[in-house]
Design goal:
Helix content: under 10%
Strand order of the largest sheet: 16-17-18-19-20
Shape: globular
Number of helices: 3
Radius of gyration: 24 Å
Order of helices and strands: EEEEEEEEEEHEEEEEHHEEEEE
Structural class: mainly beta
Largest sheet: 5 strands, antiparallel
Amino acid sequence: MDDQVRTRVAAYAIAVQDDRLLPARSSEASPVFTPGLWHLPGGGIDPGGYVVEERAEFFSWPGRSRDDGTSFYGRDFAAEPQTRADADAWRAAGSPSSWEIRSSDRTRTITSKAGPWTEDAPDTRSGGVFDISGLGRFTYQELQNLPTDPEGLRKLLCEGSIELADGRTGMPKQCREPQRLGAVEDPLGRAAVGLAAPFESADGRGTIQHQVLFDPRTGKLLGHRDLQLEPGPDSEKWQVTGKVLDYLAIVESGWTDAVPAPPE
C-alpha cells in the first residue's frame, strides 16, 4: 500500500442502544479523516499546548482641527511564545513558525516573521478627534477638561465616548467602581501608576479588569491592558486568573507642526 498513515492520540467510544451502534461521519472540512468516512464517535487529543503572543505596532496622527486630515500605519511584529513555559512547549511541538487562529468568526495565520509598514488610505477631510487608547475619542477641548473626581473617572473608564454599533456608548456590561492601582509597571517595564475598572465580559469570558496606566512624573498616558480576574464559561483554557489578555503600550506621543512619518 502507498497510503500515508497519520498517527494521532485520540479517544473514542462505543455507544450501543437496543442493539444499535452509534457511528459518526467525517465532514467535508475534516483535517484528519477522509470526508464521508464512518468512524466511532470521539476525537483527537492535543496534549500540552502553549500561548503565542501576537504583537503589532501602530503609528497614527490626527490633525488638531477638522479637515486637517488623519493617517494610520501598522506593521506586525514576529509572534512568539508568551512565557518561558510556553517556549518550552513550543520547542517540544517542533518549533513551528506559523499558527492558524480563529477570532471573531475569522480564521487567519500569524507567523514568527515581522512584516513591513502598511498605510490605510489617508483621510484628508477628517481630523479634530483624538483616539485616547483605553479611554475613548475626544475633541481637543474635551481633552482639556478631563474629569478628576471619582464619579467623573468612573464614567470615563466605564463609558468613555466610544460609540458602539447600536449607538450606545461604553463597555458592554456593568463596570464596577474604579480602583487605584498604585505603583506598577507597564507592559514595557516602565514605572507607572494606574486606574482599574473590572467589568463583566459580554462574550462569556468572565470578569476582566481594564487598567489604564500613566507616567507618574508627567501624567502622560502609557497605555492600557486587560487582565483576567475570573474566567467565564466561554474562556479559553489559557485565560486563567491573572493572565494578561491584551495590552497596548504607547511608546511616544506629542505635537508637531510637520506631517509625521512612521519610524524606521
